[in-house]
Amino acid sequence: MMAVIKRCQTDESTSVNGDLFQESNGPTDGYAAIAQVDIQRQEPESLRKWREEQRSRLEALDSASKAAEEEWREKAKKELEDWHVHQSEQMEKNKANNRSSEEAFLAESDGPGAEWERVARLCDFNPKTSKQAKDVSRMRSILISLKQTPLIR
């Protein structure tokens, strides 16, 4: 019995998990055998032509979509830069306008304690002309009382 096993080991044999298997001439993998049959079987000329045409169409579509995407990216980048420029210009205008308004407001200063007088000039205290939906009567009364008797510091 030992002689038989030794003879098998000297022949072209393979050991898998301790079991001895004889090598074969064909592929041992079942999928490889199927793939080999597929290679041997030639596809019709019309199918081969269609595959090549389809591949070329898909490549053309891919290149066109990549070009369009690149164009959109460039356009979006330009629009974003334009928006940032416009936004910074608008902010500079607002800053300048706010500074000039603040300077004019401070130039009107009548001295200390006249702040509420200036606030009263900016507010509309007539309840009948106010077209606001919210009730601002309490705020109006507070501003009027502060105008009449300013806070002492």
TrEMBL record:
Primary residence: membrane
Region (Disordered) residue spans: 1-28, 82-112
Keyword Membrane listed: yes
Membrane-protein topology: Peripheral membrane protein
GO biological processes: clathrin-dependent endocytosis; intracellular protein transport
Pfam families xrefs: Clathrin_lg_ch
Entry function: Clathrin is the major protein of the polyhedral coat of coated pits and vesicles.
Family recorded in the similarity comment: Belongs to the clathrin light chain family.
Name of the protein described by the UniProt record: Clathrin light chain
Name of encoding gene: cltb
